[in-house]
Amino acid sequence: MRMMLSALSLLAAAPVLAEPPQVVVDTPVTASLVQQVMGDLGQVQVLLPKGASAHHHQMRPSDARGLQEAGLLVWTGPELTPWLDRAASSVAGDVAQLRLLEVPGTYLRGYDDDHDHGHEEHGHGHDEGHDHGHEGGHEDGDHHAHGDVDPHAWLDPRNARLWVAAIAETLAEADPDNATAYRQNAEMAGEGIARLEEDLRAQLQPHAGASFVVFHDAYGYFTDHFGLQPAIAVSLGDASTPSAARLNEIRARIAQSGAVCVFPEYGSDPKLVKAVTEGSALRAGRELMPEGGDLEPGPKLYGQILSEMGGAIGDCLSQ
Fold first, then answer.
1. Strand 72-75 relative to strand 23-25, pairing
2. Interval 29-40 mean pLDDT
3. How far apart are alpha carbons 150 and 233 in whole angstroms?
4. Cα–chain-centroid distance for residue 312?
5. Rg of the chain taking only CA atoms, in angstroms
6. Is 197 left (phi over 0), alpha (psi -120 to 50) or beta?
7. Percent of the chain at pLDDT above 70?
8. How far apart are CA 296 and CA 298, in angstroms?
9. Would you tell me the crossing angle of helices 28-38 and 179-204 to the nearest 10 degrees?
10. 268 near 216, Cβ under 8 Å?
11. SS (H, E, C) the chain
């Protein structure tokens, strides 16, 4: 009996390890980055269903419940998912949050930057001493007001490397017992993204001067980063239906540009792309999926988005 009491005393004295926080995220892209950092310590809850548009979504009651029960909300920001903005302030008001577009050092571009800068590379603002190999460009990464910020910032892989480190630090603060694991996972994730960057740069560098057409204005970070010509977008950055005036403008730009390829986009209306390219000699490339499309959600999704995009663009432009 005495031995049993002793054993019970030891059990009572043992430290109670904190559980990893329940993490809720906005999109499958964010989920991929967070899951790489969490590893097998937890499973994230994704608000946006696979294949749905990040710009146009309605939250369900189950989403609100998930937010209320969350320990951490990681999301891109209202610039991408305006439907989450009010809930993040009200339903999840007491929940710790990480907004990726607000991570110090994140390179933000505006939708008008293609006209201002062509395909030059830009520098991250608030770089905090890290050398990412940018040449020239903006000193202030936060130079755009919210209204004109292009929110598709994950398509610059240097942002993604920065974000996985920030995710790791946020998780380490919430769950100190697993801080080392989070930081090690983030380091491995960053190294994997860097290797992918090198491969894509080698694949795309020969096509730096080629012009091409896309469905919506979501690819500026990708073309900036890899030194490609700015894509000619049929629709605006929120993937809204373009007006007749815009379609006429895009037809004229295509005719003047010498564009060689056109890329449809997952979930978009192919008729709109056809309307501005019919009668031209543009080659049709594979469907692009900047938000993941029908790719399998999970930790590998982020790398697959960039690989598929680089492969599709490189293959069409090299024909």
1. parallel
2. 98
3. 13
4. 18
5. 22
6. alpha
7. 82
8. 7
9. 130
10. yes
11. CHHHHHHHHHHHHCCCCCCCCCEEECCHHHHHHHHHHHHHHCCCEECCCCCCCCCCCCCCHHHHHHHHHCCEEEECCCCCCHHHHHHHHCCCCCCEEEEHHHCCCCCCCECCHHHHHCCCCCCCCCCCCCCCCCCCCCCCCCCCCHHHECCCHHHCHHHHHHHHHHHHHHHHHHCHHHHHHHHHHHHHHHHHHHHHHHHHHHHHHHHCCCCEEEEECCCHHHHHHCCCCCCEEEECCCCCCCCHHHHHHHHHHHHHHCCCEEECECCCCHHHHHHHHCCCCCEECCCECCCCCCCCCCCCHHHHHHHHHHHHHHHHHCC
Give me 243's structure tokens. Answer: 């007006």
Place of tokens 């790791």: 168
Q: pTM score > 0.70 for this model?
A: yes
